[in-house]
Amino acid sequence: MSKTIKNILAICIGILPIYIIMILYRLTHTDSFSSFEMLAYPLIFGGFSIILILILNKYLLRNGIRAFIPERGKFIMDIVFGITLAAICFLLLFIEQLVFSRVLTHGKPPSQEVIKMMTTLAHNPLLLAVWLGPVVWIGVAASEELARVFFLNCLWNISEKKFWIPVTIILVSIITGLVHFYQGSFGVVSIGIQGLLLAYFYYKFRRIWPLIISHAIFDSAQVILFVLQTFQT
User: Fold this and answer.
1) Residue 87: per-residue pLDDT
2) Could you give the C-alpha distances from 32 to 91, 104, 136, in angstroms and in order?
């Protein structure tokens, strides 16, 4: 089996089915997730996604996990890069809200179930700890960034032409944004733009931990700010 076929097969097994299931479920179910489901599903599907990608990476693509494990002496830099990326993502969010929010969301909240979940977290310290711990770091940040990196690596292995690099970065960012369509059109555009930043960073440095750290910080900070605002009001 050729390298190209292996990488296409890896995408078809490890990435596309999960994305398609997420989109189809959102399209066919009008009822929103409960707060418990919003906590449990990321851990279940995120954990399954991580295991599946690691298995495909090792046994189908015959690759090691060097890209997923920080080299000795570089983890401090991963943390610094992660915090920096999170700060840039917040800056991008601020700019996006100024430019796109009214046009894309028409003044409506992007996702009522997300707001409902955060309200529940604000009044339940145990659930808040679960969210800020395993849910954010494993179910959301680790699984989504591992999928992004795996998707990019597989596409880059298909062709070595220079134009293919920016094409794949844009393609993966668009697809990742569309998967989050339940957050509204603003969410799709915002996550797509942030995806361009994260994908380009990975292309330049080939380090996944800064992506995971920045993603976890970005999501956690928004929840913490919402909780603080809830108590102030």
Assistant:
1) 97
2) 30, 21, 20
